[in-house]
Amino acid sequence: MTADISKPHKAYKEMAKHWALPEALVGGTPAMREAGKTFLPQEPRESGGAYSVRLNRSFLFNGYGATLRMLSSKPFQKEITESGEVSDDFRALLEDVDMCGSNISKFGRAVFEDGMQYGLTHILVDMPERDVTRDIDKASQKAENIRPYLVSVSAKSLISWTSEFRKGANVLTSATIKSKKWNNVGNTQELVYVYTIIGEATIEVYEADKENGTPKHVETKVNSLGIVPLVTCYTNKTGFMTGKPPM
Fold first, then answer.
1. How far apart are CA 120 and CA 8, in angstroms?
2. What local confidence, expressed as pLDDT, does residue 123 receive?
3. pTM, full prediction
4. How far, in Å, CA of 150 to CA of 107, rounded?
5. Which residues contact 240 (CB under 8 A, 6 or more apart)?
6. What is the signed CA dihedral for 19, 21, 22, 26, rounded to 10 degrees?
7. Were 208 and a residue from 1, 5, 57, 215 both cysteine, which residue would form a disulfide, CB within 3.0 to 4.6 Å?
8. 3-class DSSP string for 194-243
9. Is 155 buried (19+), middle (13-18) or exposed (0-12) by CB count in 10 A?
10. C-alpha triplet 30, 34, 37: angle, nearest 5°
11. Per residue of the chain (247 residues), what is the pLDDT tens digit?
12. Contact 208, 216 (CB under 8 A)
């Protein structure tokens, strides 16, 4: 792949222009002070020292963050329960949808809050890797906990995508997800930036040792599903794969 895979989609850049204010509001006083003159301008005749003193004694009442959490919790005041007959496998999925101990209600609330913050959010369906050369029956899959699970992908993390118009609808053909991980290096750890490009036929992984570094190809895997298993949830849709903070 010759294109700069770390470069965000133009539509992503347009969306990001609307994220600074709600992120600072959610971050409260520390975020407001860190933003400095962006949201607390320096007066024309105010000295740098006087401004610094005023900045460090200014506090932000986080009404926005409280409202965001309150609204996001409303649909989940009662636990989500299944109706009718469901299989044991599906019930297990509802009880731990992300393989991190979150049930469907806890996961849904977090996803909805992220959507309310940015105008949209995403859910990726994933599955643990296994040795495809080894035949494995259903009992072994259950014993090894090899099953589908859901991954919450924030609007900030899905930095680029491609699509095609098919049978009267836009179809997602690739999604580039940026994430971070810590690699063990001797007795310490180093932060690595990971770019995962999920296509209809393959999944490509790139890594960079710094945020603006050049990503290097790590591996290419087969996507046997033949689709990009990602669902976008909108709270204020402005177009295909785009949204704007509703608050």
1. 16
2. 97
3. 0.86
4. 9
5. 163, 170
6. 130
7. 215
8. EEEEEECCEEEEEEECCCCCCCEEEEEEECCCCCCCEEEEECCEEECCEE
9. buried
10. 125
11. 446 889 999 999 999 999 999 999 999 899 999 999 998 999 999 999 999 999 999 998 888 889 999 999 999 988 888 877 888 888 888 899 998 999 999 999 999 999 999 999 999 999 887 766 677 777 777 777 778 899 999 999 999 999 999 988 999 999 999 999 998 988 899 999 999 999 999 999 999 988 888 899 999 999 989 999 999 999 999 999 999 999 8
12. yes
Question: 238 Cβ partners below 8 Å, 6+ apart?
Answer: 119, 244
DSSP 9: P
| pLDDT for 41 | 93
Rounded CA separation 18/242 (Å): 12
Contact 200, 228 (CB under 8 A): yes
Helix H segments across the chain? 10-16, 20-35, 48-56, 63-73, 88-95, 104-118, 138-143
DSSP type of residue 42: P
- End-to-end CA separation in angstroms for the chain: 38
Q: Each residue of 141-153: b (16+ CB within 10 Å) or e?
A: eeeeeeeebbbbb
3-state secondary structure of 175: strand
- The token duo for 90 is 């599906």
Written as one string, the DSSP assignment of 181-193 is EEEEETTEEEEEE
- How far is residue 246's CA from residue 80's CA, in Å, rounded to a whole number? 25
